[in-house]
Amino acid sequence: MTPIVSIRNLTKTYGNGFQALKGVDLEIKRGEILALLGPNGAGKTTLISIVCGLVNPSGGQVLVGGHDVVREFRKTRALIGLVPQELTTDQFETVWNTVTFSRGLHGKPANPARIESILKDLSLLDKRDSMLRELSGGMKRRVLIAKALAHEPEILFLDEPTAGVDVTLRRDMWQVVERLRKTGVTVILTTHYIEEAEEIADRVGVINGGELLLVENKAALMKKLGRKELRLELAEPLGALPSGLDSYHVTLAEDGGALIYEYQGEAEQGRIATLLGSLAAQGIEFRDLSTRQSSLEDIFVELVGQRS
Amino acid sequence: MNFEAIKSIYLFEMARMRRTLLQSVVSPVITTSLYFIVFGTAIGSRIQEVDGVSYGSFITPGLIMLTLLTQCISNGSIGIYFPKFTGTIYEILSAPIAMTEILIGYVGAAASKGLIIGLIILATASFFVDISIAHPFMMVVFLVLTAITFSLAGFIIGIWAKNFEQLNIVPMLVVPPLTFLGGSFYSIDMLPPFWQAVSHFNPVLYLVSGFRWSFYEIADVNPLISLAMIGLFLALCLSLVAWIFRTGYRLRS
Q1: DSSP string covering A103-131, please?
Q2: CATH assignment of the domain containing A288
Q3: Cα torsion for A117, A121, A125, A131, to the nearest 10°?
Q4: Model confidence at A205, in pLDDT bands (50, 70, 90)?
């Protein structure tokens, strides 16, 4: 299937000489949820700003729905909805007017039924006549999503949708994204909250210093890069690491009360049985065991750390 | 052409005028009435006719121009500055509209507001003084061209301004001296020769003079020259806007 967004060797150097993007290649599949993960200043916002038309690229090409974002901006921007990071709203407008304005701005004729359904989906219908300044932060964020959806886009960009919002609201936002996915909208979100990417994304792209370090299916990424740890709580503490375990990456916990076996991927997983066998052979008993998989956060810290 | 988008911007801007009716319409009407009371009736009654026209009637075209210029510049600038200030400009820049369409929406709305206020002032003036319009068509031409030109100038200021002080500097500090010294309240024949020559460098002189000619057929400069000068200002503003759009100056990095 042809990608809905295709980014090739995209570069951006701002007027002050700052190189925000250093040759990014990325393909986004139709209907997926892609999380772009990276620390502040990594280039996430620049990347989506170029796709949406807010920033001019310095080099490279971006195709949206097969159209060039610079030359055929009318076609590409009609496909895109953008929810910015900042809560930028016309304080003195009503919810209804501001959402209707967004639809018109995208060249679509008025459709009150459609606007009503969008507001209903975002639990904003009872606030339709409220002025934006009367709304809470969470509601304003939802109004921005409603504005972005008013022209029925196929692609929705969410720039840091949950930056600075509380946990309940964050969950609320994730549900909104999940519902959008069901309607077939492609969602690209930037975040520096790893748990957010882990929770809702299909694929994760890690961006740092203007470079896309990797883009992987989330599960595959976790599987490929995720380390696992087996912790065996010993019945009797040990003074030193027993011999015969040298071939495993086993360490003794500081108090000698547990053995920790770190392994990576499926190959090393198979050695758990032999490890346990050799412990039994030496008469070392354990009273409990637990395993832990490293999170996306560990992977991320490792990736970003390697490059810096 | 994305006509829906132009219509949306235009109506959105005009809605602001309705919301701020007192500030947008009532305030210029009161200010102009005060001018008529002070200059037209109180002081004007002691001033003899200017070129065969009573003083109150003589200053009417100048007063309309004064308000039109101020209103068009401030409406044109605030229209584009406000979304820049609040950040809502992101939506306009990411919508499938060309810069010329954005321009038509904002400048069209600012010019319309200016024209509405200009006509209201003309109606107000008719309560105070006798007004005759010798060339109604040319009057409308002068009015519309001036409204568009100065709304464009306002748009440029709105894009250029980085803060409210810069936004207000032109309407507050540049426009009043130019209009007051541009023959709104007098014919430049009344000035010493040196100041007459200086006045010819003031663009507002041409606007007021041409506009007054359409009322009473009296003018400080040939009406055709006035028309040519308005055309020149319009061309200047348009080329500046074209440059802004081409370079993305203070809009797109």
Answers
A1: HHHTTPPP-HHHHHHHHHHTT-GGGTTSB
A2: 3.30.70
A3: -110
A4: very high
Give me the phi and psi of A84, to 5 degrees please.
-75, 170
Residues A186 and A156 in one domain: yes
Say if residue A100 is in the same domain as residue A235.
no
Q: Do A67 and A165 have their domain in common?
A: yes
Residues A166 and A256 both lie in one domain? no
Let me know whether A76 and A198 are in one domain.
yes
Q: Residue B87 and residue A107: Cβ atoms within 8 Å?
A: no
Q: Which amino acid is located at B70 in the chain? A: T
Q: Is residue A300 part of a domain?
A: no
B145 pLDDT higher than 70: yes
Does residue B160 surpass a pLDDT of 90?
yes
ipTM reported for the complex, 2 dp: 0.87
Indicate yes or no: CB of B94 within 8 angstroms of CB of A77. yes
Residue A291, domain extent: 227-295
A265 part of a folded domain: yes
Q: Are B4 and A54 within 8 A, CB to CB?
A: no
CB contact under 8 A, B94 and A56: no
Would strands A203-208 and A19-28 be described as parallel, antiparallel, or unpaired? unpaired
Q: Percent of chain B scored above 70 by pLDDT?
A: 100
Q: B-chain residues within 8 Å CB-CB of A105?
A: 4-5, 8-9, 91-92, 95, 97
